[in-house]
Write a structure and sequence with these properties.
Number of strands: 10
Shape: elongated
Structural class: alpha+beta
Number of helices: 7
Low-confidence stretches: 1-38
CATH class of one domain: Alpha Beta
Mean pLDDT: 76
Strand content: 15-25%
Largest sheet: 6 strands, mixed
Distance between the termini: 117 Å
CATH topology of one domain: Rossmann fold
Order of helices and strands: HHHEHEEEEEHHEEHEE
């Protein structure tokens, strides 16, 4: 009696549940990505092709096909790389009044996801019956589209995580420090000619041109102003002499400035420094060439 009572209690009480950690897979690691596909919404573009119908019939049949595909969870795609669903409807019979022939396919990455289109016939059926037939045939293709989207999104997520991890593991480049001593100044002998030397070169150029022109005007012989009046002469010697004097002074000043600048730079390249130490006394000379 006690044994049967204990057995009954053991059967009535719920058995303890043991938690088992399932191995992680790309699908479980990326479940938020997969959920976008498996929640019943499939992003795809739907194309309907009709043959052998009037314009009014084409409009009606196209709406029936789009509504049938949308009823199976297809949402309008916003990306160019989402699958494209093709629904082809052709009339049967000589006057296209004996029913419809269907061909449904899904294309992604320039290939048919099912390998080949799904073909079916709907003999002597109405447009409502055609819509039901389209849904039935598309359900055969739907799992293939879902699987393709899941695999594609998992690959994208893994690639994004690998890129982020690689970027995070890249060593940081050390900060760049300016060279010691700061930027070179005009007093640095290695920088080149100072403003004094450049001014001297400019004055030598201007003075040389002025001297040449003044010399030419000074050496030019006087000319008659009018052939009928030989006693009236035009002479360029006075302005030439003035220009020659100004040009000569400018030239000499430029030469002087250039020489002064050159001597200063040579002095900066060499220096004498007294040296005093235990048992040593003298002068240290340092120079740069």
């Amino acid at each position: 009696m006690q044994l049967s009572t204990a057995l009954a209690l053991s059967l009535a009480l719920p058995s303890p549940v043991m938690a088992v950690n399932a191995p992680a897979t790309p699908q479980t690691l990326l479940s938020p990505v997969v959920a976008v596909v498996t929640d019943g919404s499939i992003p795809a573009k739907v194309n309907v092709e009709l043959a052998g119908f009037s314009e009014a019939e084409q409009m009606s049949l196209k709406n029936q096909a789009l509504e049938a595909i949308a009823a199976e969870g297809i949402s309008e795609s916003l990306g160019d790389d989402d699958p494209q669903i093709y629904v082809k409807i052709t009339g049967m019979g000589e006057y296209n009044d004996e029913g419809y022939e269907l061909a449904i396919d899904a294309i992604a990455e320039s290939r048919s996801l099912a390998g080949q289109p799904i073909e079916a016939q709907c003999e002597l059926c109405t447009e409502g019956e055609l819509s039901t037939k389209i849904r039935e045939e598309f359900r055969k293709l739907r799992p293939t589209i879902v699987q393709y989207l899941e695999d594609r999104d998992v690959k994208r997520a893994l690639a994004a995580r690998e890129a982020a991890a690689a970027k995070q593991n890249q060593p940081e480049s050390p900060p760049t420090t300016p060279p010691p001593g700061g930027p070179p100044t005009s007093d640095d002998p290695d920088e080149g000619m100072s403003s004094t030397g450049k001014a001297g070169i400019g004055m030598m150029a201007v003075g040389g041109v002025g001297t040449a022109i003044g010399l030419g005007l000074t050496l030019n012989s006087p000319k008659q102003r009018n052939e009928d009046k030989g006693w009236e002469l035009i002479s360029t010697r006075p302005p030439g002499a003035a220009l020659l004097a100004i040009g000569g002074v400018t030239l000499v000043t430029g030469v002087a400035l250039f020489i002064v600048d050159r001597q200063r730079r040579q002095q900066r390249r060499s220096a004498l420094t007294p040296v005093v130490g235990p048992g040593v006394a003298g002068v240290s000379w340092a120079g740069r060439f």
